[in-house]
Design goal:
two-stranded antiparallel ribbon
Length: about 80
């Protein structure tokens, strides 16, 4: 733990954000990397609040290139901060 504070490469550590979409019946969340994570998060929260089930489709920038699911299958969303070099 102390090594990370004395690490001369510490200034090379960058942060990125991912939106986590938890789908009902799935054991792991979908990890979605986008340019505007807060905007996607807000959009997914609005879908969860809606009584109407709609098909949600979105292109992303990470390993998952495109995602599609029905909005009433979404159980939770989160924004995750990740550090990388």
């Amino acid at each position: 733990m102390a090594q990370q504070y004395n690490n001369p490469n510490a200034q090379n550590i960058k942060k990125r954000y991912a939106v986590l979409a938890f789908i009902k019946g799935s054991t792991a969340p979908l990890v979605l990397y986008v340019k505007e994570p807060q905007q996607l998060y807000d959009e997914l929260v609005n879908l969860m609040q809606s009584q109407k089930a709609v098909l949600f489709e979105h292109e992303t920038e990470g390993p998952i290139k495109k995602v599609c699911f029905v909005s009433n299958q979404l159980s939770a969303v989160a924004i995750q901060e990740e550090q990388y070099m």
